[in-house]
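ESCALATION

Customer reports they have been waiting on this structure for their group meeting. Please prioritize. Original submission:
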Amino acid sequence: MKDVRLSELLKEVALLFLRLGASSFGGPAAYIALMHHEIVVRRKWVDDQKFLDIMGAVNLIPGPNATEVASHLGLIRAGWMGLVTAGGLFILPGTAAIILVAWAYVTYGSLPQVGWVLYGVKPAVIAIIVQAVWSLARTGIKKPILIVVGLGVLVLYLFGLNEILLLLGGAILVLLIQGGFRLFKPRATGLLIAPVVFFKLPLVGLASGITAFSQTTLFLTFLKMGATLFGSGYVLLAFLRSNFVAGLGWLTDAQVVDAVAVAGQITPGPVFNSAAFVGYLLGGWPSALLAALGIFLPSFILVGLLSRFLPAMRKSWWAGSFLDGINAASLGLMAAVAIQLGRAVLIDWFTILITLGALILLLRFKVSSVWLVLGGGALGIIYKLLVG
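Update from on-call: job pushed to the front of the queue and completed.
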């Protein structure tokens, strides 16, 4: 009887999260709103307070937050199998769609018409990133130390410092200051010096110059990203550029933008699915699946661990301080990568106008990012047809 009940619960979880994964457009806020409606309002698996606790807790661990919320809800409903089922099926539709889009991109991407589409799409994506930074900063940056950390990370990243150490350094600094050294006072000096020392160490895999493609390196690089990437999925852009453009030399700046413009915006699911797009560009569908596995695997493990500590974390001062620092550093990274990619994308008056127009539509009229991407692509085609 117990096995029958578990089977029914797993089926319920599977059908729900497969459908949610196939219809989740518009970014993490939209995905989580869909989950709230289905699970709190309609099915009443958890109440509002529990749902909020889960949302807050997943922000303290790296990885795609919406996927982690899905996994945690699956765990509550159907145990450990529910965790894997909910998270896996929420990701599946987007990953499959992105591999299909990547195939079309590789097959037809050199055709002028496809270039015309991307010519209009990329400026719209820059606007989406800028709007995300603005919106998140208004919510999460309310203290002077957070402003300092965000601006410091922006500048240091533009000077070439490693994004992982910037995230951790920012979090530690805010933790020490906001915590009033209550816990770390005897070790404060060492903790403040540690990030500076780490910044001076050579970073394996980030040396400049082109490195021969390796599926092992591909998997380990995305595994590292999945295990260390906090904040919005758009922070992934900074990681992609640092590792695959500046580090390994496997991608160009334009391809990094394409990974989000073609994959992250016009297919369902989290921006982290851009990993599958990158994997396909580098090594076909086997590398696409390997990249997706690498970037999503840590989130399943971390959600399982998080479930053990969630009640205590809700009241912890240090967890909140650490999260404040991570968020501020993440916003600094997002702003820096927007600047870098903007240099590659905003090349004439037309692309600048698309970005400004998209920003107005986002900030004033709250237009969906999906429509902005589609509209940018259409404008790119029209402009090229008229101007040539």
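Sent to customer with the following note: The chain has a mean pLDDT of 83.
Escalation resolved.
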